Fold this protein.
Amino acid sequence: MIRPLLIELALFLAPFALYAIFLALTRSSAFDPESWSWRVIGWLTMAALLTVILSFVVIAQFGGAPPGSTYIPAHVKDGKFVPGRSE
């Protein structure tokens, strides 16, 4: 459960990191408050939220079990744990 959370967090922080890299490459100060105006932060936040939403859509469309499959829950068979699966 922690891996999907970290992936989404990384996707959210990616636009901010790319902007900081852009500032470094253009020799602007990444620590200058004028470089991080509220307008810029707003656009970066919208880009970050759009990236996260698109990743949710991609995961929903292309992840998981194939359509029409049947889920078999985890169970114990002959004293051994059998994990859940889709068939």
About this structure: The beta strands are 71-72, 75-77, 80-82, 85-86. Helices lie at 2-25, 38-62. The mean pLDDT is 92.
